């Protein structure tokens, strides 16, 4: 399978979540299932069914995280420079509204638009790859065509 590009911070966050699930969440749900079993008839035991459902979610997430971490290729953005590529923090200005935004281009498993972390597979990130400061970028978004100008590129 292909490697999954990821920043060091994104990798650490996934490892932390995995550790939390294995050392805290998993034992807690096992205890909850045991407690619910003691209440008697399992067919109509809502606590038991809820705990089993949560256990399934936790086990599924553990498997997913282990797979992602196993395929991760950690890339240190501070060792990069030049035009926009994975790991770049890019300041853009919307050419229509003059609204400025800053994005860091990261792997899909660490992307979080609210925190300015843009998925490398997103239309905007794909349009930005290879561009330099001062370049204009046209992007087709769900809201229509957008034009951005690249103000700065930083690798931090």
From TrEMBL:
Molecular-function GO term, any one: RNA polymerase binding
Keyword Transcription: yes
UniProt KW Transcription regulation keyword: yes
Function, in words: Necessary for efficient RNA polymerase transcription elongation past template-encoded arresting sites. The arresting sites in DNA have the property of trapping a certain fraction of elongating RNA polymerases that pass through, resulting in locked ternary complexes. Cleavage of the nascent transcript by cleavage factors such as GreA or GreB allows the resumption of elongation from the new 3'terminus. GreA releases sequences of 2 to 3 nucleotides.
Keywords: DNA-binding, Elongation factor, Protein biosynthesis, Transcription, Transcription regulation
Organism: Shimia haliotis
The name this protein goes by in its record: Transcription elongation factor GreA
Ranges where the Transcription elongation factor GreA/GreB C-terminal domain occurs: 82-153
Family per similarity comment: Belongs to the GreA/GreB family.
Domain Transcription elongation factor GreA/GreB N-terminal, residue spans: 5-74
BP GO terms, sorted: DNA-templated transcription elongation; regulation of DNA-templated transcription elongation
Gene name of the record: greA
């Amino acid at each position: 399978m292909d490697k999954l590009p990821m920043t060091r911070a994104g990798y650490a966050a996934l490892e932390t979540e995995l550790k939390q699930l294995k050392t805290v969440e998993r034992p807690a749900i096992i205890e909850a299932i045991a407690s619910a079993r003691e209440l008697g008839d399992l067919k109509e035991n809502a606590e038991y069914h809820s705990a089993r459902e949560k256990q399934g979610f936790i086990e599924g997430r553990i498997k997913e995280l282990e797979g992602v971490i196993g395929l991760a290729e950690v890339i240190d953005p501070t060792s990069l420079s030049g035009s926009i590529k994975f790991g770049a923090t890019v300041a853009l200005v919307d050419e229509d509204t003059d609204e400025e935004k800053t994005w860091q281009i990261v792997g899909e498993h660490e992307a979080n638009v609210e925190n300015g972390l843009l998925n490398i597979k997103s239309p905007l990130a794909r349009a930005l790859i290879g561009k330099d400061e001062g370049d204009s970028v046209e992007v087709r978004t769900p809201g229509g065509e957008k034009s951005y100008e690249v103000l700065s590129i930083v690798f931090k």
